[in-house]
Amino acid sequence: MGDTLPMLNPPHHTQVRRSLGNVFDRKSLADMKSSVEQTTSRLLDRFEEELAYGPADFCALVSEELPVITIGEWLKIPPADYALLRSLTHDQVYTQELFPTPSQLALSDESTRQLREYFTALVSERRRKPGNDPVSSWLRVWDAQEPDREAAGEAVYALTLFMVLAALETTAHVLSSAVRLLLEHPRQLNWLRVHPEQIPDAVDEVLRYDAPIHMISRVAPEDTELAGVTVRKNEMVQLMVGAAHHDPNHYAAPEDFDIRRRASHLSFGGGIHFCLGNALARMEADCLLTALLERLPGLRIGAPPLWEPRVAFRRMITLPVVRG
Q1: Per the record's keyword annotation, is Oxidoreductase included, yes or no (predicted)?
Q2: In the prediction, which pLDDT does 259 show?
Q3: Which of 111, 210, 235, 294 lies in disulfide reach of 92, CB 3.0 to 4.6 Å?
Q4: Distance between CA atoms of 170 and 218, rounded to whole angstroms?
Q5: How far apart are CA 229 and CA 251, in angstroms?
Q6: Is the bond preceding 11 in cis, omega lying within 30 degrees of 0?
Q7: Per the structure, how many domains does the chain have?
Q8: Which among 96, 116, 228 is positioned nearest to 169, based on CA atoms?
């Protein structure tokens, strides 16, 4: 993980970030939106079919599927591999938890090994048969600036791994959490149905109220003082984003979910490490909520959701939903 973009500092970070180009800019998102809308419609068709027979698990049928299909189509990964990548990603993030158990670390190590094997092979294949896809584009950039082909391939592997890890867990949580919170607050849901132009504000409140990442680790590059506490060089600081989002000194009634709040949040980070995929995650949430509001009135939560016991990365395992 130390070679992935969030863990790098300038000048290495600058070089790697520049090699990505303008990923998820306005044009790229416009090109992707139609596909995301079609995928959303197809997933909701299946979800609606399941609702006809009783409770349907929104996580399994929709929120876990949309992000992996979206990023998989963008990277031109075979659809048959989506389930494997989703499963490996679930296990890999244990290494980024606050106090992972030995068994969780072993699970994370094994999933990381398999992800490395998969994406190393993918990068090698794209070098042999380059195409019109991001991985091939990154290879062209790195091959032009790095004479060592092995080092160039390693850089592109780290980029590809990071894109998948960053896109799946976090976006799936935002989608499932948005639906959960709106179903738990039917008055706000009904208001949003009348004012769909406010969906972006609703998504921001979801990101504040229940951020996909509740903890970010940072290492001090030199001795410093933080809020009156001495932090020595190379010591690690855990930034508790989830707690910051509920700080009464910064938010009025922070425990209230209010889609008209229009408050800022830290869910996408900041500075040079501001989330590259923030606009893509927003678009997926916007497409999903827009379609849900139009197609499926009268939904309610059929049973309490189940959660993965994590601190850093939030993950809802099941969200049973019923109709009527």
Answers
A1: yes
A2: 97
A3: 111
A4: 19
A5: 24
A6: yes
A7: 1
A8: 96
